[in-house]
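okkk here we go again. third time trying to get the adenosine-5'-diphosphate bound version out, last two times i messed up the smiles copy paste (missing a bracket lol). double checked this time i swear
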Amino acid sequence: MKPANQATWEDSASTDVVSREEHIAPAPRVSVQAFCETVETAAAIQAAGQDRRLAKAHLRIQMGGLTAAVEAYQSSPTPNVIILESENRSDEILAGLDRLATFCDPGTRVVIIGRLNDVMLYRELVRRGVSDYLISPIGTLQVVRAICGLFSAPDAKPVGRIIAVIGAKGGVGASTVAHNVGFALARDLMLDSVVTDLDLAFGTAGLDFNQDPPQGIAEAVFSPDRIDTAFIDRLLAKCTEHLSLLAAPATLERVYDFGADAFDAIFDSLRTTMPCVVLDVPHQWTGWSKQTLIGADDILIVAAPDLANLRNTKNLYDLLKATRPNDRRPLYCLNQVGVPKRPEIKASDFAKALEAEPVAIIPFEPQVFGAAANNGQMIAEISSNHRAAEMFRELAQRLTGRAEPKKQRSGLLLPLIDKLLQRQA
Ligand SMILES: Nc1ncnc2c1ncn2[C@@H]1O[C@H](COP(=O)(O)OP(=O)(O)O)[C@@H](O)[C@H]1O
Ligand SMILES: [Mg+2]
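finally!!
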């Protein structure tokens, strides 16, 4: 068994949605086998297996608890992670673990789920190299957290948040919103941010920030073997003190057909050095664009107020809610609202269809938006007091949780042993 250097312990009453302060890094391609004793625990682990952060992990669940595990591993190698549920008394759990230890590969991590809230038991589990102890009943997200926590390298922090912005239709101003929000994150919230243009053929981030870097995201996506933070850093163009750009080539010599996880390594690398990664996702539905949205920490859908936008926003919204049951809901904003003489669908109708209010209603202002686009400037640079500039600041705050009261989380990542000592004191 692997020694418990990262052991954590937390109350079983967990929240069911990840808070903004918390980032659960996705687990790598590891094998996880769970031996449960109760159907409730099996169901929670089963649901955890559906979470986006465990998409790469191979999860197998069976009943029978410790006894079944001991039986199973006598004749077969142990996986990366074993989750064991035991309703037994402490001494029986420890005896079972000792038997299991004789078959356990050195790299295998063990997570125990038990009913007992017993300090002596925790101690003995730690001594035996158990990585985590969860008290039942357990929640889905607790399982996700426990598994992912085993593989997130402590030196990979701080981890950035990925904010994906997509339009419900082409031309609705999704890129404009993404760039202006990125600008506000950097200038007003002073968060180091990178705007990443994923529209490789036609992206406008370079134009909008008046930058023409010789290299950009294409270098990375076409040479996946070279991706590391130093390599990605060299591809970034600096726009302002806190804002960088990973630009699209916007050339047509090559075609841009990518596999579903083509950008994953780039995002992982960006988030190790940048607190905010704003993804300008083009309006298309491909394996990678879908995966990019599902994998993001937050999603902002930009819609213009017409029927096709309403339908598409609803479809995107519903799909993303369903595929991300343990995450915050996507956000959406309306843009280009109030085009003279144009009949429009009202914000209240959007709110009714989506059962959520838009986070911003940005007016159609051709003069200032047109000037910004043609000058390679942001709205706030043209007119800092403009109401659209104010809205982008508010959106930046909203997307980083600055506009919400901070939830207190008590020592979530305190090592198990510290927690024990605290409890005894
Ligand atoms: N609120 C607005 N008022 C007026 N024009 C806008 C507004 N938002 C965006 N635009 C303009 O709409 C055009 C399309 O914007 P863009 O951001 O490229 O859309 P998308 O990325 O959704 O295809 C651009 O010319 C942009 O300047
Ligand atoms: Mg765009």
